[in-house]
From TrEMBL:
Residues 1-150 form the 6-phosphogluconate dehydrogenase NADP-binding domain. It comes from Zizania palustris. It comes from the Eukaryota. This is 3-hydroxyisobutyrate dehydrogenase. GO terms for molecular function: NAD binding; NADP binding. InterPro entries: 6PGDH_NADP-bd, HIBADH-like_NADP-bd, HIBADH-related. Keywords: NAD, Oxidoreductase. Residues 154-271 form the 3-hydroxyisobutyrate dehydrogenase-like NAD-binding domain. Pfam families: NAD_binding_11 (PF14833), NAD_binding_2 (PF03446).
Length: 287
């Protein structure tokens, strides 16, 4: 996703400096004119705005706050750090405070839309931080998708977590409906077509149902990253004294995919968990 997003900046004519832990993954950007450097600190030193797109909160912490190699160690006063990873709201607030201490600002701006949204510049971007800074970033965000300001530091992360909660239960409902239709003797493809324009229609159905029918489990968004996101959601709920049983169920079903070594598959692989529970295999033909 980060490669596509940086690519849009290059296409728009911006000077782009990049860092990736696996340098070979940045070769496509370098071939288009980006400059590859050896650390987040070096990338930030060459930029007015530094974007982070990594995997886990521990990655966000090290790439932003490490005193030797982190982005804030290289960002000049007045610079802006934008974390687009789905991470912890408390970490977003911590980074915002650390940025302010060195004369910079930080925005938490996680995204929804997966690899397709990144490629097509149609991401939903949830922005948290100083409203004036977010407004100033609008020309950059517009190259990636649609940004909405959600509130102060951490609000972008909380908005994204709510997004993941909604998606999780939607995915469970979709795959359960597909397995029911299959066991009931329906043609699942026709059933999906029938429900897609009614109240059961959803982005999840549009993006993933066909992939599940074709047994295409290639990741647009990794199971292991979704488990991470749902785990953060559950931690937030515990701190809030909030019970969301649908979230907890979805988390456990996705954790079962990890147990089967399927963390590198896409989130549509949830169908595998429900199939295993019912000792069946979905295909395009009724049983």
């Amino acid at each position: 996703m980060g490669q596509s997003m940086a690519g849009h900046l290059l296409t728009a004519g911006y000077a782009v400096t990049v860092y990736n832990r696996t340098a070979s993954k940045a070769e496509g950007l370098v071939s288009r004119g980006a400059t590859l450097v050896e650390s987040p600190r070096a990338a930030a030193a060459a930029a007015d705005v530094i974007f982070l797109m990594v995997g886990f909160p521990s990655d966000v912490r090290s790439t932003s706050l490490d005193p030797s190699t982190g982005a804030l160690a290289g960002l000049a006063p007045g610079g802006v750090l934008v974390d687009m990873t789905t991470s912890e709201p408390t970490l977003a607030a911590e980074i915002a405070a650390a940025a302010a201490a060195v004369g910079c600002t930080a925005v938490d701006a996680p995204v929804s839309g997966g690899d397709r949204g990144a490629r097509n510049a149609t991401l939903s971007i949830f922005a948290g931080g100083d409203a004036a800074v977010v407004a100033r970033l609008a020309p950059l965000f517009q190259l990636m998708g649609n940004a909405l300001y959600m509130g102060g530091p951490g609000a972008g992360q909380r908005a994204k977590l709510g997004n993941q909660i909604a998606i999780a239960s939607t995915m469970v409902g979709l795959v359960e409906g597909m397995v029911y239709a299959h066991k009931a003797g329906l043609d699942v493809a026709k059933w999906l077509e029938a429900i897609s324009t009614g109240a059961a229609g959803s982005k999840s159905l549009d993006l993933y149902a066909k992939r599940m029918l074709e047994r295409d489990m290639a990741a647009g968004f990794y199971v292991r990253h979704f488990v991470k996101d749902l785990g953060i959601c559950l931690s937030e709920c515990q701190a809030m004294g909030l019970a969301l049983p649908g979230l907890a169920l979805a988390h456990q079903l996705y954790v079962s995919l990890l147990a089967h070594g399927e963390g590198g598959l896409g989130t549509q692989a949830l169908i595998l968990a429900i199939e295993r529970l019912n000792n069946t295999r979905l295909d395009n033909k009724p049983e």
